[in-house]
Amino acid sequence: MSIELLDATALLLVAMMRAAVPLALAALGELVTEKSGVLNLGVEGMMLTGAVAAFAATVSTGSMTFGLLAAMLAGMAMALLFGFLTLYLLTNQVATGLALTIFGIGLSAFVGQGFVGQTVEPMAAVSLGALSQIPLIGKLVFGQDPMVYLTLALTGVIWWFFARARAGLVVRAVGESPHAAHAIGYPVRLIRLGAVLFGGACCGLAGAYLSLVYTPMWVEGMTAGRGWIALALVVFATWRPWRALLGAWLFGGITIIQLHVQGMGVDLPSQVLSMLPYLATIVVLVLISRDSTRIRLNAPASIGKVFHPEG
Predict the structure, then answer these.
(1) Which of 104, 173, 223, 301 has the fewest C-beta atoms lying within 10 Å of its C-beta?
(2) Of 201, 200, 195, 202, which Cα lies nearest the Cα of 178?
């Protein structure tokens, strides 16, 4: 294989991994939330809120670090609202999550009005000198931006947390049987709220990646349905972190491929090519739904169910 072909392949794989970052971060956050027994459909709204908060903070302060922190706080604020309504006021989780998405879409559009058309300097990729120049492996392994490595590390930490850590086993127990966990003294609502806040922080970071790294600019509705794909990824992964990451790479690859196909001048309407990632989501969900036994065995038993300490 020629050096030029290796470089082109490396660039394609790097672009695929970058496109997967917001999907993976949002899916991992939602995975932790659902492991505790809470279903939050407000992922899209939290991502948009995080995206506009990150962009506004970065433009205002000149610090991307501050922008990422603002995105996490914005996502957590949205998640806190959701958690208070569903865990303490016992509102329906599905309806509240949908309302959170609608609220996030409107709030981000309002806050972002003054930032339309502005740009920021994107996050620089890590460069390790000669290592980054190795054909194929150099750019793929040693030439990514820091958020790609953060996503990989976060996947490993979440896997370890649920597989090895006592606290992770407690979260899983709460997701399986909150009444049993409450009976032996665990603060079920606080544990679930912590999981919801973590999910909000991850969704905020996912939105920040779109507005600070992937684009990098603020565009109203820039998530373009990625929050819903992230929700589908959790089911696709059967609530396993590494499978969620692989699923994000798959959908990221489809996104990049359809862009390359458009650039090659393939005689297909651009609308058809643009819908490929969402069509793939539907196909995957249809295929997964045929194996209902696996879903039942892996899904948290109490997901979406209201818990009251005196109930």
Answers:
(1) 301
(2) 195
Q: How far apart are CA 69 and CA 63, in angstroms?
A: 10
CA atoms within 13 A on the CB side of 15: 15
CA distance 243 to 264: 31
Phi-psi label, residue 238: left if phi above 0, alpha if psi -120 to 50, beta otherwise: left
Cβ density class 39-52: b for 16+ within 10 Å, e for less = bbbbbbbbbbbbbb
The span from the CA of 274 to the CA of 1, in Å, is 31
Phi/psi of residue 234, each to 5°?
Answer: -60, -40
Measure the CA–CA gap between 30 and 33, rounded to whole angstroms. Answer: 5
Whether CATH 1.10.3470 fits 3-298: yes
The 10 Å Cβ neighbour count of residue 96 is 20
This prediction's pTM: 0.92
Residue recorded with tokens 């959701």? 82
Spatial CA neighbour of 55 closest among 45, 42, 68: 68
pLDDT in tens, the chain (311 residues): 566 666 667 777 888 899 999 999 999 999 999 999 999 999 999 999 999 999 999 999 999 999 999 999 999 999 999 999 999 999 999 999 999 999 999 999 999 998 988 999 888 877 776 666 776 676 777 778 899 999 999 999 999 999 999 999 999 999 999 999 999 999 999 999 999 999 999 999 999 999 999 988 999 999 989 999 999 999 989 999 999 999 999 888 888 887 666 666 666 676 776 777 778 778 877 777 776 677 777 889 999 998 988 75
